[in-house]
Amino acid sequence: MSKRAVLEVIALDVEDAVAAQAGGADRLELVTDMAADGLTPSAATVAGIRAAVDIPARVMVRLADGFAAGDVDRLVGAACAMREAGAEEFVLGFLDADGCVDLGAVERVAGVLEGCRWTFHRAIDRAADRDALRKQLDGLPGLDTYLTAGAAEGVDEGLPTLVAEAGRRGEPGYEQQLLVGGGLRLEHVPVLRDAGIDGFHIGGAARPRGWGGPVSAEAVARWRRVLGD
Question: Which CATH superfamily does the domain covering 6-227 fall into?
Answer without folding.
Answer: Copper homeostasis (CutC) domain (3.20.20.380)
